[in-house]
Design goal:
single chain, alpha/beta, Alpha-Beta Plaits, 33% helix, 27% strand, binds adenosine-5'-triphosphate
């Protein structure tokens, strides 16, 4: 086991990490610490830099600037010590071997490997242990990848879009298993496009956009960060009301389509009270909380507006 620096309990630490491909800054000045026992979801639109971040974490790529440390050492040393199990999108599996043989191999090479039957069972692939890997469905192949990532007693498990190609019940079973691993004290980091998974499974959500971390908190924090409430109503005399609407308090974002006004508000009570105080007569008024999906869209949309020199209103 590599030496940990005294007073450095973190599982992973990115310090001012930048990774550039030609003109594209895939990761741009990333500072991030993962602590023991966290289940962390990494979210972001396509091309945000999630896979590159995981590659840097696992030492598959080196940063152009900054440092990545895993368990107080280099990613390569941490991997060699069996401290990390990973399930990535890229890289084909050997197709001519049987599932059991492949998983057995992963158990054998892991410095703290588990018995193969335990791994097959936990990953939900015991029933297909004698199938050839090349004959598996997409969802089954994902579960075999998961078995490989959990073949030994790794302290950190890294998963890049683990439930792609799984149906709903396979996903539920998968996250049930993951929860069990997290409850044993493992740190889990997973990239996903399924926001409901992040909401249900993660205790910390990271949102990346254009290589930068733009939100970091509990799912509830991230929702609150986007503005807590969505207000929708219709107005008949909307054309004359533009200035009033723009002057409403706690305005996160304002959209007007036809007669319908959509507002994201950081204080819905104050905004709605001001609507009435201004003498507006809203019809069909609705106030609702943002889901993580809407929060995510709001945050990434706002960030784009800021980067493009958007107004304070659209930038929150
Ligand atoms: N090997 C590479 N060569 C050139 N550009 C790359 C390479 N890998 C990634 N990129 C670029 O870096 C940026 C970040 O890509 P990355 O795959 O890390 O994003 P992502 O958030 O994982 O995206 P997705 O959700 O689509 O998987 C993108 O603009 C991508 O086109």
């Amino acid at each position: 086991m590599p030496q940990q620096h005294t007073g450095e309990p973190e599982v992973a630490a990115f310090t001012a990490v930048t990774k550039t491909y030609g003109q594209v800054k895939a990761v741009d000045g990333l500072d991030l610490t993962l602590r023991p026992g966290e289940t962390v979801a990494l979210l972001g639109p396509n091309g945000a830099g999630k896979s590159t971040t995981l590659d840097l974490l696992l030492g598959l790529r080196n940063p152009d600037q900054g440092t990545v440390r895993l368990f107080g050492t280099t990613p390569q040393q941490a991997l060699a010590a069996g401290l990390v199990g990973a399930m990535l999108q890229s890289g084909g599996l050997m197709s001519d071997v049987k599932v059991r043989e492949l998983v057995q191999f992963a158990c054998d090479v892991h410095p703290r490997g588990y018995p193969v039957d335990r791994v097959l069972e936990t990953a939900g692939v015991a029933g297909i242990a004698d199938r050839r890997v090349g004959k598996l469905s997409g969802g089954q192949e994902q579960r075999v990848r998961f078995a490989l990532a959990t073949a030994g007693a790794s302290d950190l498990i890294v998963l890049d879009e683990p439930t792609v190609a799984m149906d709903v019940s396979a996903r539920q079973a998968f996250w049930g298993t993951m929860r069990g691993l997290a409850d044993e004290g493992r740190t889990v980091l997973f990239a996903t496009h399924y926001l409901e998974e992040a909401d249900q499974v993660a205790d910390r959500v990271l949102v990346m956009h254009r290589g930068r971390l733009i939100a970091d908190g509990t799912p509830a924090d991230v929702k609150a960060r986007a503005g807590a409430r969505r207000i929708v109503f219709d107005l008949d005399d909307i054309a004359e009301r533009d200035a009033v609407l723009r002057g409403l308090p706690a305005l996160g974002a304002l959209e007007v389509h036809g007669r319908t006004v959509r507002i994201r508000s950081t204080d819905a009570d104050a905004t709605v009270a001001a609507v009435y105080r201004a003498g507006l007569y809203p019809r069909n008024l609705e106030v609702a909380g943002l889901g993580l999906e809407q929060a995510f869209l709001a945050i990434t949309h706002d960030e784009t507006a800021v980067q493009q020199g958007g107004t304070e209103e659209s930038a929150r």
